[in-house]
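Example record used in the benchmark description.
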Amino acid sequence: QVELVESGGGLVQPGGSLRLSCTASGSFWSINRMGWFRQPPGRQRELVAAITNGGSTNYADSLKGRFTISRDNAKNTVYLQMNSLKPEDTAIYYCNAVNMYDRSWWGQGTQVTVSS
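Model output (structure tokens):
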């Protein structure tokens, strides 16, 4: 079993920045990929970015250049640095972890609101 705890969401003005954190506990030894998804109001959940144990990353095409995913393996933590935020980035952001057996876990979600 894996537990994911997210933090760092909040209200930010357009053009601002936020950094989200997600710390894994439990059977995190089996995790080989972590990532962030988001669900804007009235829309489906979508991939933001993901990172493997080896550091390989992939991003939603529309977010490349503004968002950066990174991880600290010693802290079992993955980060999402979000810059130049826009109102359309408003969403609930969810942390995701996938283990070597392709089993997936989700965090509880953290709200990010971009508004003046």
